[in-house]
Amino acid sequence: MDTNTVSSADKILEAATELFAANNYDATSIKEIAKLSGVNSALISYYFGGKKNLYIEVMNKQAAHLLALIDTVKDKDDLNPIQKIHLYTREVVEVQKQRPMQFHLIYRELLSPSGFCSNFVKSRLYRIHQFLYELVAQGIKEGYVKEMTPNYAAFTLESIIVFFFLTQNFVKELGAFDDDSADE
């Protein structure tokens, strides 16, 4: 594949990510994606086989960033489970700062499913839940956390992270939050 081919496909993915996150799947047209990416709309079918496959590819690419974080944190053998949860949370905040549309896209799919990404939700997001579940269970076993139901604790952690990002702009408007306080 030459650099023009890679460049066009990447431009399409970037534009599609932005538009799908802002509008949702149904409200985003191939024409809008082509216009924002600066490529001919026929290239979307050429590279991705259509809008549906492009959407699935965008979702997979967004999940890959989060799953890579899990692998990075898991490999930190010098950290206890609570430190790993803290590190994972800080890293998720960094991803949010660098790729804010990523979370919008995933949340939109969770709140208004497109109908063809159920495998995405089941497989990728389950891995995130399982990771947090395992850390909580390990923390209980090693005495870092009091006895509790790891499944509920993992869902609670996920909910806190999601709520933080969903309300971040509102809280900023109130003046009670700035980008630096997200690191704390």
From TrEMBL:
Residues 6-66 form the HTH tetR-type domain. InterPro entries: Homeodomain-like_sf, HTH-type_TetR-like_transc_reg, HTH_TetR, Tet_transcr_reg_TetR-rel_C_sf. SUPFAM superfamilies: Homeodomain-like (SSF46689), Tetracyclin repressor-like, C-terminal domain (SSF48498). Pfam families: TetR_N (PF00440). Residues 29-48 bind DNA. It comes from the Bacteria. GO terms for biological process: regulation of DNA-templated transcription. GO terms for molecular function: DNA binding. Keywords: DNA-binding. PANTHER family: HTH-TYPE TRANSCRIPTIONAL REPRESSOR SCO4008 (PTHR30328:SF54), TRANSCRIPTIONAL REPRESSOR (PTHR30328). This is TetR/AcrR family transcriptional regulator. It comes from Candidatus Avacidaminococcus intestinavium.
